[in-house]
Amino acid sequence: IQSAIRRVPKAQRAGMEWLIKHMPHEDLKTVSSRFLLDNCDLAYKTRKKYTWGASVPDSIFFEYVLPFASLNERRENWRKDFYYRFSSVTKSAASAYEAAAILNNKMFEMVGVKYSTKRPKADQAPYESMEAGLASCTGLSILLIDACRSIGVPARFVGTPMWYNNAGNHSWVEVWDDGWHYTGAAEPTADELNNVWFSGLASRAVEGHPKYGIYAATWAKSGLHFPMDWMPEVRDYNAVDVTQSYIQNIDDSLVPIRIRALDSSGKRKPVTVVVTGEDDFSFEGTSKSEACDLNDHLTLMLPRGKDFTIKTDDDQRKISIEKEEIVDLKILD
């Protein structure tokens, strides 16, 4: 570590000093000076190369571009490789926002990784996910964050230990372009950020709550720890509470109804779903497949106290809207 401080170029010294001061304690004992020098040098070079680099404040650069990891994932030397992998596909981007959207659209096919609950473990590092070809929302987020950082786009890991309705945890990514923007890793919405399937769930998060809040990981000292669902006893990684950015006004007269179409083995299938109801209500949509997050369902906000019919070609359910629920429809094999 002392060797890295002595050998770092003067122009990179502030970044190296920040990195060493704020990196997790275990990294101080395990990472080499060569690793730190290479990581720092590449981060500074990409900052100069891309047009958006000049607009990134030092504080954001230090905190969300320089770090070589987000949380407890295995430490890997990804920065140079990822720069060469992804700089070509983002060369047309005019902003960090646009570059992040391009990466989310293209990179997962490039590296052969997709969402699956059958991934080896939750907190996979990038090359662990690439070797498996599968990753959870956590592993996918880590992969997208590191890809963003490799081309100078500030990015951070965000998640909630539990949705308000106890449906499970979730992780996603925020990128900085004159403010923070959010996106689901491997869940692109054309060229847009801030457009995600979980906005309704996130809107009911509870600020300051260790279980139902939304937190962003940081290496800066914050007074909060990031609640890692996969290692709940570990409190070594810092966080900031970003719940307020996601909370929205809730219309209590509307109830979220989530629809799944399941085959005989219980797997989700994408089929056409038609919903009809009072006052000539009619809706047609497509149910989600196993490629989607476990909590990503075809969702409608329906008025409390009304009756509706939900049907596919194979099944039909009639429901009276009282409280939020998941409606399962059977699909014939």
From TrEMBL:
<dbReference type="InterPro" id="IPR002931">
    <property type="entry name" value="Transglutaminase-like"/>
</dbReference>
<dbReference type="Pfam" id="PF01841">
    <property type="entry name" value="Transglut_core"/>
</dbReference>
<dbReference type="InterPro" id="IPR038765">
    <property type="entry name" value="Papain-like_cys_pep_sf"/>
</dbReference>
<feature type="domain" description="Transglutaminase-like">
    <location>
        <begin position="129"/>
        <end position="190"/>
    </location>
</feature>
<protein>
    <recommendedName>
        <fullName>Transglutaminase-like domain-containing protein</fullName>
    </recommendedName>
</protein>
